Give the backbone structure.
Amino acid sequence: MVNTSNFVDAVAREMACGVETAVECWMAQIEEAMTDLRLTSLGRLNAVTQILASYKRLTGKEQLQCRKNRSGPSSVVSEAVGSTGH
């Protein structure tokens, strides 16, 4: 007989695995768009925008929220802009 704790742990592991797989899939799509040498810079931006729109459509999310910093721009974006000198 399976106890409740083992069952919950098994379900949690399966859910975590599914989330990790989904995130990796989205990141792979973004990476592919960003490194596609056949696209211009604008084309890469448009490709990533399409991936984001697809994610929002599939999940039913209109807006995405960053847990780390909701009051301002994402620190990743700020760091990227700072590293380009713009």
About this structure: Residues 4-84 form one domain. The mean pLDDT is 86. The helical segments are 4-35, 41-59, 75-84. The chain has one domain: 4-84.
